[in-house]
Design a protein that fits this description.
By secondary structure, the protein is mainly α. It has two helices and no strands. The chain binds zinc ion. The site of zinc ion has 8 residues, from helix 2. Zinc ion (ZN) binds next to helix 2.
């Protein structure tokens, strides 16, 4: 499974809560965070997920 497919599955698991009558409370049904939840935003942000995981990016020495 590619990284993009993995992110797509994560995004599918997280969606805005829906209650009877079509009303929503604005929370993610999966993790309970306010919609859009951080996980969904992360999974749907258009970027190369592998590129951002380079540890060198977090260790810039002045
Ligand atoms: Zn969520």
């Amino acid at each position: 499974m590619s990284a993009e497919e993995r992110l797509a599955r994560i995004a599918e698991a997280h969606h805005k809560s829906l209650y009877s009558g079509g009303l929503t409370d604005g929370d993610c049904s999966e993790c309970g965070w306010s919609w859009p939840c951080p996980t969904y935003v992360w999974a749907t942000t258009a970027r190369d997920p592998l590129a951002s995981w380079n540890p060198a990016d977090d260790e810039e020495t002045p």
